[in-house]
Every structure is written in structure tokens, then in C-alpha cells.
Amino acid sequence: MDTNVLAKMSYGVYVVSSLCGKSPAGCIVNSAIQVTYDTIAVSIHHQNFTNKCIAESGKFALSILGENVDENIIPVFGFQSGKDINKFEKFKTVTADGLLVLEDSIGYIVCDVVGKFETETHTLFIGKMISAEMLHNDNPMTYAYYHAVKKGLSPKNAPTYREAKTEQKLAYKCKICGYIYEGDITKEPDTYVCPICKKGKEFFVKI
């Protein structure tokens, strides 16, 4: 079976947000689809803190990311855990139906959960739209654009995650996000950080 064909499927890039009690939570997703004229489905990994929050709160919001979105949004929401930090505190937000959405997004959709389906690794939450608004005029970021232009990688919990490979004789791999540094990272200054998850070079291992 040639799984490379899956890379030819089209995806967007979004931040899905929800609440755990009064605390906001959110993560990057690329698997979100419009099922009917007022129904949205999102796929969230079982290990994502956001999964637990959506299940408990019964609602989620989808922030649609554009090609010119703040470059720090994907590293924070895609490669860090809401159990450890408040991902929203460094970004401007808008409150919509009690949920935080990113002001820097093209727009948002807020949904009440009306159903869910469990797979081996992910929960597919089905949401009925209760509000939506356009915020900025920008081209939506596709996953193909994210990889080709932004040179981004898939978070480990993304449905499209695949182990990064390199043909270099000497390379280092970030233990947090899987980014591959080609060459000798020990020659970088101590201030060097991973371009994807912003962790220091002490988080890299030789491969």
C-alpha cells in the first residue's frame, strides 16, 4: 500500500479551541470539514488536552488560519501542551459564545457538539454551527502551503504525521516536534532554538 498518495489530499490549517472549566485550550488541526450547510467535523487526537476539553464542555471553535498568520501560532498551538501553558496569553483573541478565537485568523466558527465517533487514535467531533464571523481578508493556509512555503512539519498527534527522514550523514532530530537539523548542531550558539517548536538545542538528539 502506497501511503504517499495521502499527501495529495487537500487540507486546511486551523486552531480548534474549547474550555476546560474556565481555562481555555486549543490545538492545531488540519482535519476539519464542512459536513452540511451548518455542520462541521474536526478530528482531535485522544492524547490532546483539547480533546478532553471539547468532550467536557460540549462545544468548540474553529479559527481559520491564513497564509500571513503570526508565525508563532503554529509552534505554540501545534507543538506545546495546554496542560503546561496558556497558549492564548501571547496572542490577541476575540471571545465568541464563551470561547476564545484568534483575532489574527481569517474568521471563526463556533459549534455545539451534536455527536462524535471514536477511531483508534482520534475522536471525530461533529458540531452544529451556532455562530461565525469573518475577521480578515487573507488566503486560507492549506497544508500543502504550510509544508512547501513555511517548511513546516506535522505535529506528532496530527492525522497526517509521518516520521521525517534525511539522507545527510550527520543530522540532529528535535525530540519535541521531530524537526531535522541537517549538519552539526553543536556548532550553533547556545541561543539556537528549533524553528518549529522553539525549544533549545539541548532538546536535539543525534541521528
What does this structure look like?
The chain starts with 13 loop residues before the first strand and ends with a strand. The mean pLDDT is 86. It is globular, with a radius of gyration of 17 Å. The relative contact order is 0.18. It has three helices and twelve strands; from the N terminus they run E-E-E-E-H-E-H-E-E-E-E-H-E-E-E. It has two domains: 11-148, Pnp Oxidase, Chain A (Roll); 171-206, Rubrerythrin, domain 2 (Single Sheet), CATH 2.20.28. It has helices at residues 49-57, 73-79, 143-148, and strands at 14-20, 23-29, 32-36, 39-45, 59-64, 93-96, 99-102, 107-118, 122-134, 171-174, 180-182, 204-206. The chain is mainly beta. The strands form three sheets. It has a seven-stranded antiparallel β-sheet. Strands 11-10-12 form a three-stranded antiparallel β-sheet, with no helix packed on it.
Distance between the termini: 27 Å
Order of H and E elements:
EEEEHEHEEEEHEEE
Number of helices: 3
What top-tier CATH class of the largest domain fits best? Mainly Beta
**Estimated structural class:** mainly beta
* CATH topology title of the largest domain: Pnp Oxidase, Chain A
In terms of topology, how is this protein built?
Blueprint: E1 14-20, E2 23-29, E3 32-36, E4 39-45, H1 49-57, E5 59-64, H2 73-79, E6 93-96, E7 99-102, E8 107-118, E9 122-134, H3 143-148, E10 171-174, E11 180-182, E12 204-206
Antiparallel strand pairs: 1-2, 1-5, 3-4, 4-9, 5-8, 6-7, 8-9, 10-11, 10-12
What characteristics describe this protein?
single chain, 207 residues, mainly beta, Pnp Oxidase, Chain A, Rubrerythrin, domain 2, 2 domains, 7-stranded antiparallel sheet, 3-stranded antiparallel sheet, 3 helices, 12 strands
